[in-house]
């Protein structure tokens, strides 16, 4: 199963995150299938490759709660994200 989740990057005390499509059995810094976005919580910057995210969602990928909340802030308008917790 594929999930859309955060992958930690950056230096100590200055984390930035990549939003990646990754197999659920992989660890957090494991090999990802594709990079679909970027999130910097300190500066509040977010970049999402919306067509790529929608492609993975159509294929059955599930976003984690945090990725769902990030994308829900007006970045994926018009598309409802289905999440099974």
Write structural notes for this entry:
InterPro entries: Ribosomal_bS16 (IPR000307), Ribosomal_bS16_CS (IPR020592), Ribosomal_bS16_dom_sf (IPR023803). It is found in: Plastid, Chloroplast. This is Small ribosomal subunit protein bS16c. With about 80 residues, the protein is an alpha+beta fold. It has one domain (about 1-70): 2-Layer Sandwich (S16 Ribosomal Protein, Chain: A). Helix content is about 20%, strand content about 40%. The protein has helices at about 50-60, 65-70, and strands at about 1-10, 15-25, 35-40, 45-50, 60-65. A five-stranded mixed beta sheet has the order 4-3-2-1-5. Strand 3 and strand 4 form a beta hairpin. The longest helix has 9 residues, at about 50-60. It is globular. About 20% of the residues are buried. The model has no long low-confidence stretch (mean pLDDT about 85).
Please state the average pLDDT score: 84
What structural class do the secondary elements suggest? Answer: alpha+beta
Sheet with most strands = 5 strands, mixed
Radius of gyration: 12 Å
The best one-word shape is globular
What is the CATH architecture term? 2-Layer Sandwich
* Beta-strand content: 35-45%
* Low-pLDDT segments: none
Distance between the termini: 14 Å
What kind of oligomer do you see?
single chain
The CATH class is: Alpha Beta
CATH superfamily: Ribosomal protein S16
Helix and strand run: EEEEHEH
Helix fraction? Answer: 10-25%
- What is the topology, as strand order, of the major beta sheet? 4-3-2-1-5
CATH topology (level 3) name: S16 Ribosomal Protein, Chain: A
Number of domains: 1
The overall strand count is 5
Separate helix tally: 2
